[in-house]
Amino acid sequence: xxxxxxxxxxxxxxxxxxxxxxxxxxxxxxxxxxxxxxxxxxxxxxxxxxxxxxxxxxxxxxxxxxxxxxxxxxxxxxxxxxxxxxxxxxxxxxxxxxxxxxxxxxxxxxxxxxxxxxxxxxxxxxxxxxxxxxxxxxxxxxxxxxxxxxxxxxxxxxxxxxxxxxxxxxxxxxxxxxxxxxxxxxxxxxxxxxxxxxxxxxxxxxxxxxxxxxxxxxxxxxxxxxxxxxxxxxxxxxxxxxxxxxxxxxxxxxxxxxxxxxxxxxxxxxxxxxxxxxxxxxxxxxxxxxxxxxxxxxxxxxxxxxxxxxxxxxxxxxxxxxxxxxxxxxxxxxxxxxxxxxxxxxxxxxxxxxxxxxxxxxxxxxxxxxxxxxxxxxxxxxxxxxxxxxxxxxxxxxxxxxxxxxxxxxxxxxxxxxxxxxxxxxxxxxxxxxxxxxxxxxxxxxxxxxxxxxxxxxxxxxxxxx
Amino acid sequence: xxxxxxxxxxxxxxxxxxxxxxxxxxxxxxxxxxxxxxxxxxxxxxxxxxxxxxxxxxxxxxxxxxxxxxxxxxxxxxxxxxxxxxxxxxxxxxxxxxxxxxxxxxxxxxxxxxxxxxxxxxxxxxxxxxxxxxxxxxxxxxxxxxxxxxxxxxxxxxxxxxxxxxxxxxxxxxxxxxxxxxxxxxxxxxxxxxxxxxxxxxxxxxxxxxxxxxxxxxxxxxxxxxxxxxxxxxxxxxxxxxxxxxxxxxxxxxxxxxxxxxxxxxxxxxxxxxxxxxxxxxxxxxxxxxxxxxxxxxxxxxxxxxxxxxxxxxxxxxxxxxxxxxxxxxx
Lengths: 466, 331
Hints:
The complex is a heterodimer.
Chain A: H1 2-24, E1 28-29, H2 31-34, E2 36-43, H3 54-71, E3 77-81, E4 85-91, H4 97-104, E5 109-113, H5 119-141, H6 145-165, E6 171-172, E7 176-183, E8 189-195, H7 197-210, E9 217-221, E10 224-227, E11 244-251, H8 253-264, E12 272-280, H9 282-335, E13 339-340, H10 342-371, H11 376-408, H12 411-442
Parallel strand pairs in A: 1-13
Antiparallel strand pairs in A: 2-4, 2-12, 3-4, 5-6, 5-9, 7-8, 8-11, 9-10
Helix pairs in contact in A: 1-9, 1-12, 3-4, 4-8, 5-6, 9-10, 9-12, 10-11, 10-12, 11-12
Chain B: H1 9-34, H2 42-45, E1 47-53, H3 61-64, H4 74-83, E2 90-94, E3 105-110, H5 115-129, E4 138-142, H6 144-172, H7 175-203, H8 209-239, H9 245-277, H10 283-313
Antiparallel strand pairs in B: 1-3, 1-4, 2-3
Helix pairs in contact in B: 1-7, 1-10, 4-5, 6-7, 6-8, 7-8, 7-10, 8-9, 8-10, 9-10
């Protein structure tokens, strides 16, 4: 009896600790429950780097983090997934459009000097580019997919021509220290760039080499000639010094900001591909939390009622154990912390089923022993003893599935496996210690020591003697 | 009440085979139609799914005119899709409020859309149909490569889980127990996938990652059910080694019957609650679990037990060496 009192005391303290944890720590809700966007990126190997090392992945992650921070989304999280994946979580974002633009683009910025002797070809190509851009604009406004594709093709052709007219890049996005959007009158914006110190030097040299020659400075973004300003002859001596410049390219506030973020965030050491986006609106998330919560609580209440109705006193004790079980499980969720997703909640509800099963096994066994004519105390003891191996086997096989799922599964599946595994572990504990202690303690109360409270319709009523 | 399970073995097996054959037939038809035994969802095929809800919040009503009073015209949606060169996308109208059947939610499933294409599509739709509620949209894009990966890692997970269970049960019981436990759970997996092939064929129901999760859960529960009965068979064999295997198995099934039914009922209570009242996301997940759990308790009671009795009652059967793990059976 002493030992049981001690166990009970320990469990009461655990339950109180669990309540304290739940009051003080919030449960972490997944984006499918609170609303938001999750983007999964896959780093692509290149000809130079065919095997992506953890260091490469971390380097890409740093750049992605910088870009994401530039978006100003609160609580944004960037994590590595597996050997070549990155997961970006943006809580509260209803449309990941801006994030996708910023993440997907490589934003390769290049400053290139026009090659000598290409003046005539350049002028022709430049006039042509303006014309195509205008036509493209019109086609976009009219939403004419066919025309858009046609002009886009012409523009690409045009860009390939420019590529031959400029010498190789000497100054790139790598040399950028800072970049920001600035208004340039009206609705148009420019991107102001400040170079790092050696970048500033390169820029001065580059501008010096073409100042006053009639040749232009080509500013390319992702092989696309954005602008081609001419450098005034006054810079022929020293080049443009001071380490900053601005790019004009018909930007709106948003496109200027996007470019600034991409430049400031640095160039990606490896190309990335956006392989998955999942977005759930905040209201939609809230609705699924509510309905799943109600369903879960409803199911739990039905189970509790069933247990008392069918198993009587032991059923009531199992119900107490189930409530403590739920408290402990959620406290562990808050402590680990486990990010709760919809499948995670499903995993929890299923683990409740497992917890109930352990109790059912024990009580059925107790009844059998009672029917076989054993005393109440011995029946309860042997119910626990004999059901143990079934409970252990059943729970261990479920745990095997959980381990495999957690190991191989993707995000949602992992959440399910984790909550189910925690639930199974805790249920072994509560059904084998708490239910047992409470049952044995209840046997010490004379008014509860009646076999009919354990099993109805016993063949011959037996008084409980020990 | 006492069930004579072993006596009617052939009836139980016939019933199971019948259900499985219907499922396989449906899978065959599904395969002929889509090239896969089940109607594969976005998670596995890749593509973009958009769910857009007409903005009928109080603050938006002024600008929506009478759009919130009538359903969205599917023709409008399809016209926009055709303009955008996405004519072969699947579109569907859903209800904003299921009780009112208002048909004010658009669900579009198309090929993998890039961000520009997608934004253009949503803008064009909003112009034609009305503004959408940004807090109720759902946008999912899965690249085709990733879809393949999800599918293969799901199948791999299943195979490894089965292997793990065989090893564990061989250690705890004997190899033939493990084999029949696996047969029983393959039965449950086949019944569930067959049911979804049927649903896919008749109702266009698609399977997603959650379906794989459901199958794995079913595997766990099915083994659990089978193990409880086998545990009892083993115990009975130890207590009365002289009884015939048929008697032993019958006794074990009957002794555990109340438990099998009660556990299935309590588990189903929770899952049916999710099915009826949970969000739409979990509807087919819970349906798969309901089918799988029912099949699981059937296969444990009627298939796994009778197969074991049949195997051990063959004239040529020689009992193997005692199991590695032994328990004393007396308190």
